[in-house]
Design a protein that fits this description.
By secondary structure, the protein is an alpha+beta fold. It has two domains: 2-195, no CATH class; 212-361, Alpha-Beta Plaits (2-Layer Sandwich). The chain is built from twelve helices and seven strands. The chain has helices spanning 2-6, 10-40, 44-66, 79-96, 104-113, 121-144, 153-202, 212-229, 243-250, 252-266, 293-309, 337-353, and strands at residues 233-240, 275-280, 283-289, 312-315, 318-321, 324-330, 359-361. A five-stranded mixed beta sheet has the order 2-3-1-6-7, sandwiched between helices. A hairpin with a 2-residue loop joins strand 4 and strand 5.
């Protein structure tokens, strides 16, 4: 029954719960007003019409939210509409409540509590102004139509009490909204900081590539996937040739520029499933899922070795070229990825011994 009444859609259910609470509170206020009307002799017709309008309006809002019709609007929970309508009904109650009209200030305080849910500070101020005008008109009407024997002191006291309720309620609600806004900002800043920390934990700061720790985790996952599915998996170790000479000749900033340009040149040539990491210093590791060793050798030669050889690095007034040696190996079923990397490392060493600027398989 509860799922049928409130639906199973999470956001809509929350809106309906809040609307249901507002309806129950309003119903309690209606009950109190009817009880006081019986005690003070308020015309029955007036109180019955007011009761139908008060409860009927909130039921109409509940139906609009329940059917999802309100989701077409900017405020699907209709919080502002409900509050304005309840204040209007409360001002009307002041007119017809007779000697019990002083209780409307308490009902107004209850209504203002709902301003906490979803209203901006500007909307809260607008609600307070509307309440002031509505109750000002209701009190003025009561004073003008009061019998000559009744003084205006009681109405002025009620107006003063309503001013206090509005001022206090508006201040507290606005303060809470500011606190909520500050908490949202702090949460966003915290999420941004956590995102940066996660990025720094998994990525190399200089090149933006994966770091060694993140690549080791990825290697373990891909090796287990390859073992499970029987799909080929290859790795390639890439080492920039004579990198120490670049640092010695042009300075470490030029070496940093060379590393960044190296990563920027290779990254666009890779498939979406390929992953490149800075393995350490001038050494990089390329992970190639669903690729055997011969495909890896061809890819590395055409897309990496040849392109890097054609690359020119400019730093300040210096210009120099790069070459890269590559050692590649294919993962064997059941083999720890450390052994796969060891064979790639031996192939890289052999490529350097053979004259560099080439790809060898291990």
């Amino acid at each position: 029954m509860l799922d049928w009444l409130l639906t199973t859609y999470p956001k809509r259910r929350i809106r309906l719960q809040l609307c249901g609470v507002a309806t129950l509170l309003m119903s309690a206020c209606v009950g109190v007003m009817n009880l006081m009307a019986d005690m003070t002799g308020t015309p029955v017709l007036a109180i019955r019409i007011w009761t139908i309008l008060s409860v009927g309006g909130l039921i109409a809002v509940f139906i609009l939210i329940r059917t999802g019709y309100s989701e077409r609007w900017a405020d699907p929970s209709m919080t502002l509409v409900q509050i304005v309508y309840a204040i209007g009904c409360n001002a009307g109650a002041y007119v017809i409540a007779g000697e019990g009209r002083g209780s409307t200030s308490s009902i107004l305080a209850v209504i203002l509590m709902f301003c906490v849910f979803g209203l901006s500070v500007r909307q809260i101020c607008a609600v307070a102004l509307f309440a002031l005008l509505a109750f000002g008109a209701a009190i003025a009407y009561s004073v003008l139509h009061a019998p000559p024997s009744r003084g205006t002191v009681f109405d002025l006291a009620n107006f003063s009490l309503i001013l206090v309720v509005l001022a206090g309620g508006t201040f507290v609600t606005a303060r809470l909204q500011n606190l909520r806004a500050r908490l949202r900002q702090q949460k966003a800043e915290l999420e941004s900081a956590l995102g940066q920390i996660r990025h720094l934990a998994a990525n190399d700061e200089l090149t933006g590539l994966l770091n060694r720790r993140a690549m080791n985790e990825l290697l373990d996952i891909e090796c287990r996937r390859s073992d499970r599915n029987g799909t080929p998996l290859s790795v390639a170790l890439l080492d920039i040739d004579h990198f120490k000479k670049i640092n010695d000749s042009y300075g470490h900033p030029a070496g940093d520029t060379a590393l960044r340009r190296f990563a920027e040149t290779i990254r666009p040539t890779l498939r979406a499933t390929d992953r490149l990491a800075r393995w350490g210093g001038e050494e990089f590791l390329l992970l190639l899922p669903d690729t055997d060793s011969h495909q890896t050798a061809e890819l590395c030669q055409k897309r990496i070795v040849d392109q890097i050889a054609a690359l020119r690095i400019t730093h300040e007034e210096s210009s120099f070229g790069l070459t890269v040696s590559v050692g590649a190996s294919q993962h064997r079923v059941g083999e720890p990825h450390a052994l796969t990397l060891e064979r790639a490392d031996r192939a890289l060493y052999a490529a350097k011994e053979a004259g560099r600027n080439r790809v060898l398989l291990g």
